[in-house]
């Protein structure tokens, strides 16, 4: 895109970026917006009012607030206040009618798809679900909470804690910004981590437990204090690239998979929904960079797989494969690489 002259004024190409209102999608879109701005384009980044406030608190955009040619705009989201352009909306934003608006205004549009190609093909079959009457949902009872509390402040104490640990000695645990689980499953995961006798950094969001309060047995809390560190959120890329991280227990969201492979970190995968099942099959069966944890979580399986990932022969093989993917990512994103 070239600079144009309008009414004797030189104007840069202008791009409007509209992400899905969820933490991982906002961060992916913000990263793309940074690149476009660095390339000389004017950028307007659109968020809901509540998520923009959370973005500021999470320290995700401070360097862009006063950057020339980079603008933040907000739109109402229905939540209380306390809580001439190319348009690049996130590919999941079909509910926001961005395509229809761009078509009406005769503005070029690019759909930025943040899931894998396999995940895209799954969503492409949405029309079949509509034809069978499975969607749209019938009433509010079908809805689950999630988007309104999707941004959390990153806690720098996570990195400070990692600084005291040996290389590849820590398991990083994060099930993403939207996935939920039962308290029973969370407790089983906890005992598996504690009994593995490995250090672990565990991200436990305030809304991670589905429909209940987060109350752990006192003996489990004691075990976590000895070997673990609990936080509500962190800078995931920074954590995964820290030398002390030796493995990643994840839900298998595409963003998490890409970040883990880019850091050369092997994974344990517990898929919850959406494209995560497909991603898990790819990384465990096709790429051989991870192992799957069964849907019915047990502390015994958790302990066994964490030990295998961190100390076992298979874990060493997975780590070598993950490092190969890291090298491929570095080549692809280097100067004149396939992704630059």
TrEMBL record:
Keywords: Glycosyltransferase, Transferase. PANTHER family: GLUCOSYL/GLUCURONOSYL TRANSFERASES, GLYCOSYLTRANSFERASE. Belongs to the UDP-glycosyltransferase family. May glycosylate diterpenes or flavonols in leaves. GO terms for molecular function: quercetin 3-O-glucosyltransferase activity; quercetin 7-O-glucosyltransferase activity. The keyword Glycosyltransferase applies. Pfam families: UDPGT (PF00201). This is UDP-glucuronosyl/UDP-glucosyltransferase. It comes from the Eukaryota. InterPro entries: UDP_glucos_trans (IPR002213), UDP_glycos_trans_CS (IPR035595).
């Amino acid at each position: 895109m070239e600079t144009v002259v309008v009414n004797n004024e030189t104007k840069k190409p202008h791009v409007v970026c509209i992400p899905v209102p969820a933490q991982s999608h906002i961060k992916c879109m913000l990263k793309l917006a940074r690149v476009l701005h660095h390339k000389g384009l004017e950028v307007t980044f659109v968020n809901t009012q509540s998520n923009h406030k959370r973005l500021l608190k999470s320290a995700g955009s401070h360097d862009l607030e006063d950057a020339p040619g980079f603008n933040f705009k907000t739109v109402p989201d229905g939540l209380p206040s306390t809580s001439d352009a190319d348009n690049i909306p996130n590919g999941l934003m079909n509910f926001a009618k961005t395509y229809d608006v761009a078509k009406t205004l005769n503005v070029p549009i690019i759909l930025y798809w943040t899931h894998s190609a396999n995940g895209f093909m799954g969503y492409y079959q949405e029309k079949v679900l509509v034809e069978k009457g499975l969607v749209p949902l019938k009433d509010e009872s079908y809805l689950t909470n999630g988007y309104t509390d999707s941004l959390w402040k990153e806690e720098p104490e996570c990195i400070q804690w990692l600084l005291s640990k040996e290389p590849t000695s820590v398991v990083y645990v994060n099930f993403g910004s939207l996935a939920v689980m039962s308290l029973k499953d969370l407790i089983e995961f906890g005992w598996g981590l504690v009994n593995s006798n490995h250090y672990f950094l565990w991200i436990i969001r305030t809304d991670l437990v589905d429909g209940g309060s987060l109350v752990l047995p006192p003996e489990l809390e004691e075990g976590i204090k000895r070997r673990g560190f609990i936080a509500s959120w962190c800078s995931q890329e920074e954590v995964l690239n820290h030398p002390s991280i030796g493995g990643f227990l994840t839900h298998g969201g595409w963003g998490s998979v890409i970040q883990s492979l880019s850091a050369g970190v092997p994974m344990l995968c517990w898929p919850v929904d959406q494209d995560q099942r497909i991603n898990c099959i790819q990384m465990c069966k096709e790429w051989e960079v991870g192992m799957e944890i069964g849907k019915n979580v047990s502390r015994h399986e958790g302990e066994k797989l964490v030990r295998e990932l961190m100390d076992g022969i298979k874990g060493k093989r997975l780590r070598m494969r993950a490092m190969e993917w890291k090298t491929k990512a570095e080549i692809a994103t280097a100067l004149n690489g396939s992704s630059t």
